[in-house]
Amino acid sequence: MRTIVWEKDEGMKLTPKAKKIWESIPADQRLKILNNVWCVNCMKTTSMGKAEGKVDGGMLSLTGICTRCGGVVARVVE
Ligand SMILES: [Zn+2]
Questions:
Q1: Of 2, 4, 33, 72, whose CB is crowded by the most CB atoms within 10 A?
Q2: What's the gap in Å between 32 CA and the centre of ligand 1?
């Protein structure tokens, strides 16, 4: 029962720094990141909706909502 699966990573909100890092990641890897996020509410891997990215301590940090339950999900890209 997956509601949304990213097919392309358009519509993300990224700070300029975050965008630079994000765009250095291969496109297929970026989709894997967006479609492979752990949700503590669902106790499952889910997709991240309304993704926003910023750089935090040199690492790209993504936050968004779980596309199953609407809860907040976050993930750091190393
Ligand atoms: Zn969830």
A1: 33
A2: 17
